[in-house]
Amino acid sequence: MSAVDGRPFAEAGFALHERLYLLSRPIPVHPPTTTAGLRISNGRAWHRDTVLDIDRRAFEPFWQFDHTTLKEARRATPTSKFRIARSDGRIVGYAVAGRAGGRGYLQRLAVDPDVKGQGIGTDLVHDAIGWLHKRGATSILVNTQERNARALALYEHLGFVRQPHGLLVLRWDNPS
């Protein structure tokens, strides 16, 4: 949430867990195409265990998805798409993108740590931008941890710009 929205929560005893960068970019008239030679397709129910294993290995415990949080990410916007990337027949990454009105959201991006740096994240972001373009979105937002230099570098390389105000992740530590 924004710092302004977080103020009443802080006053009620919530503590700051982490700060996130919020990044945005316009969706171009001619969206970029994928280039890593991957097969990107719709994710299905039977892919969930595999993508959640990738997610578990790609993120620290606080940020890891499970079946419930993956479902919640897909339902966070009125329209969403769950996509998987395959290389040599093996799932190597996934993304969840959503749209609300004219705004798109990259709600999740995870790449198998064993194959990072091969353009998989780039292609999944390009795929999300293309899907959002077809559905009339004019901009896309994404957030990432301030200490996640690799993700930040990817997003900025792909034309995302840090917004002046980031987001706060709060936690409840009050034992009473």
Could you characterize the architecture of this molecule?
The protein has 176 residues and is α+β, with helices and mostly antiparallel strands. The protein has a single domain, classed as Gcn5-related N-acetyltransferase (GNAT) (Aminopeptidase). 30% of the residues lie in helices and 35% in strands. Strands 1, 2, 3, 4, 5, 6, 7 and 8 form an eight-stranded mixed sheet that branches. A hairpin with a 2-residue loop joins β4 (90-100) and β5.
CATH first level: which class?
Alpha Beta
CATH architecture: 3-Layer(aba) Sandwich
Order of helices and strands: HEEHHEEEHEHEE
What's the helix count?
5
Assembly state: single chain
Query: How much strand content do the residues show?
Result: 25-35%
Count of distinct structural domains:
1
CATH topology: Aminopeptidase
Write a brief caption for the model.
This protein has a single domain (21-164), classed as Aminopeptidase (3-Layer(aba) Sandwich), CATH 3.40.630.30.
